[in-house]
Amino acid sequence: MTRLVLVGPPGAGKGTQAGTLSDKLGVPHISTGDLFRAHIGNKTELGLSVQSILDEGKLVPDEVTNQMVRERLAEADARDGFILDGFPRNIAQAEVLGAILAESGQKLDAVVEFQIDEDVVVARLLGRGRTDDNEEVIRHRQHIYRSETEPLLNFYRDIVVTVDAVGEVGEVTNRVLNALDK
Ligand code: AMP
């Protein structure tokens, strides 16, 4: 159970949980949002091209995102597993991920759904202070989640495990590990 995708609305705590799970399971945490923010921070060509997209809470074009993920998954540390956080975010990305993994005879073990009310996440995000965390952008990101990302739960229905994301960090981690039977 070491090839995992975390799915849940922005603000559900996926990043925090991914970090803890990465330590516990010994596989890298791969966050496409973090990868984009690192590019932006380093002012790379990719970073400069995606900055305004992140600031507006829109999705970076699939070709750009998929290529970045393909390169990251090809690194040695991801060979025996990974925790993907923020990718895939739509069905087209999920299909590309399936194809990338199939090229090396791999497949996902589970998709962890973080279940949480929208009101709770909006309040959390407003307290986080990231440049893409003002109310209008937050609403837009929630809208994209519902329309583009949530359908992944049906796409992956055979391997989805659902976890209540409300609670202390450690408590939620334990729920995930129990759900994965770790
Ligand atoms: P996150 O840190 O996961 O909330 O992602 C922050 C921002 O990065 C998103 O609002 C998008 O602009 C961009 N992003 C992250 N992951 C993806 C993805 N899989 N596809 C497209 N854009 C993404």
UniProtKB/TrEMBL annotation:
Among InterPro entries, the record links this protein to: Adenyl_kin_sub (IPR006259), Adenylat/UMP-CMP_kin (IPR000850), Adenylat_kinase_CS (IPR033690), P-loop_NTPase (IPR027417)
Sorted alphabetically, which Gene3D superfamilies does this protein's record hold?
Answer: P-loop containing nucleotide triphosphate hydrolases (3.40.50.300)
Record-level Gene Ontology MF annotations: AMP kinase activity; ATP binding
Subcellular locations according to the entry: Cytoplasm
Q: What is its EC number?
A: 2.7.4.3
Q: What class of enzyme is it?
A: transferase
* Residues where ATP binds: 11-16, 128, 167
| Sites where the protein binds AMP | 32, 37, 58-60, 86-89, 93, 130, 141
Which pathway does the UniProt entry assign to this protein? Purine metabolism; AMP biosynthesis via salvage pathway; AMP from ADP: step 1/1
Q: Where is this region: NMP?
A: 31-60
Q: Which reaction does this chain catalyze?
A: AMP + ATP = 2 ADP
Q: Name one GO cellular component term.
A: cytoplasm
Pfam families named among the record's database cross-references? ADK
Positions of the UniProt region annotated as Disordered: 1-20
Keyword line: ATP-binding, Cytoplasm, Kinase, Nucleotide biosynthesis, Nucleotide-binding, Transferase
Supply one GO BP term: AMP salvage
Entry domain remark: Consists of three domains, a large central CORE domain and two small peripheral domains, NMPbind and LID, which undergo movements during catalysis. The LID domain closes over the site of phosphoryl transfer upon ATP binding. Assembling and dissambling the active center during each catalytic cycle provides an effective means to prevent ATP hydrolysis.
Q: How does it assemble?
A: Monomer.
Function field: Catalyzes the reversible transfer of the terminal phosphate group between ATP and AMP. Plays an important role in cellular energy homeostasis and in adenine nucleotide metabolism.
NCBIfam families this protein is in?
adk, PRK00279.1-3, PRK14527.1, PRK14531.1, PRK14532.1
Can you tell me which family this protein belongs to? Belongs to the adenylate kinase family.
Q: Which PANTHER family match?
A: NUCLEOTIDE KINASE
Report what the protein is called: Adenylate kinase
